[in-house]
Design brief:
Number of helices: 7
Strand content: 15-25%
Strand order of the largest sheet: 4-3-5-6-7
Distance between the termini: 35 Å
Helix content: 25-40%
Radius of gyration: 17 Å
Shape: globular
């Protein structure tokens, strides 16, 4: 059993009920459990189309937003390993993490963070593809837009069986305040164990609405996100820290 399995069970049960909410154009947009599942499958297919295989490293450099979660679940669903990168760290720290983890595909939030990648791009030889959540102002044709990721012909399962509890799900890097950044290995079994513990401590109803503003690059916010997807309640994303 993995968080992907638990999520899929909730999709079957909750279908058209609201799962995630985000602000766009001054209005709240609801995504149902079915719509979230469709996007996760779509992005998973796109990653397969880019050549991402089980065990490959997929980085996410972004503030907390719905796309972070959708891509996270997509990568986990195909057996890839997600490597979060704090949006606030300097370019040389990003280069260290991408190189140390051998990140193959990197999701970048916007033009501002992409400029930081340009500073170190030539130093990261493992990186094959960059995909932008928000492509506004980005003219570089080598950077894919998120909506370009899905290729229907790639919707096929190339996995060597389902994820197992001992499979690596994520490598989360420490802040580096106590020395060189260290990659902490998180397995699928670790995620499920944490979710089950949170369900004992916080037995929220399906009507409960959680509010995400902490960095999803940090294990706490991500554990809460996984809890929401397992518990069947709702998650709304802050537009920014300033807009809380």
């Amino acid at each position: 059993m993995t968080i992907i399995d638990i999520f899929k069970e909730n999709v079957k049960k909750l279908g058209d009920e609201c799962c995630l909410k985000y602000k766009f154009g001054g209005k709240w947009i609801d995504l149902s459990w079915n719509e979230v599942a469709e996007r996760v499958d779509s992005y998973a297919a796109g990653l397969i189309g880019l050549g991402v295989e089980r065990g490959d490293m997929v980085g996410i450099l972004s503030t907390t937003r719905a796309e972070w979660t959708l891509v996270d679940m997509a990568a986990l669903s195909i057996g890839a390993v997600v490597v979060p990168v704090y949006h606030s760290v300097p370019a040389e720290h990003i280069a260290y993490i991408l190189n140390e983890a051998q990140v193959k595909v990197l999701f970048v939030e916007n033009e501002k963070l992409l400029k930081r990648i340009y500073e170190i791009r030539s130093k990261v030889h493992s990186l094959k593809n960059i995909i932008a959540f928000d492509a506004t102002g980005i003219s570089d044709s080598s950077v894919l837009k998120l909506d370009q990721l899905d290729q229907p012909s790639n919707r096929q399962n190339r996995l060597n069986g389902p994820n197992r509890p001992n499979d690596i799900a994520s490598i989360i890097y420490t802040s580096g305040t106590t020395g060189i950044q260290k990659g902490v290995v998180i397995t699928h079994g670790n995620i499920v164990a944490e979710v089950k513990a949170l369900q004992i401590g916080f037995n929220l109803s399906r009507e409960a609405l959680l509010f995400a503003f902490l960095p999803l690059a940090h294990v706490l916010a991500r554990a809460i996100q996984f809890y929401q997807l397992a518990q069947g309640c709702k998650m709304a994303y802050a537009e920014s820290i300033d807009a809380i």
